[in-house]
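Shipment paperwork, digital attachment
Item: protein structure file
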Amino acid sequence: MNKLLLLASLLVLPLAAHPRAHQDANASRQEVEALLTEFHAAAAEADAERHFACFAEDAVFLGTDASERWTAAELRALLEPVFARGERRKTVATETHVTVSDGGRLAWFDQRLESERWGEMRGSGVARKAGERWEIVQYVWSFPVPNELVPELSERFRALRKG
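Attachment content:
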């Protein structure tokens, strides 16, 4: 009889824990979405302190140009003067997807964005839970390119690299 009870408890415990894990993942997704909203809102308001508070100290930002790979400190040095001049970077998410790891400490995200300056963009990356807050550890800023334009753009990229 004890073996039957043990077997039953092994089957029931994961089921009982599942709703809590699902709630935690939903809460984490909402927290990461709030982090991304804050990240974009701070840039739209040229608020460097709020914007860079969204990054982990060891974060990396990948820009649209192949040469653009900056640490959080390098990006801050680049953008602080821009924000100080009041230049805003208004970008609004039109679609956001967040996936949280099983352990609940990492999340990866992708967003469709509408940039006031550049039009349709994408943002994707990784966030990490540090204590009670989430922080961006990698952010990739990119242009979605319609497939029918890829051959022409590829040729232009090759020509640019050669020239």
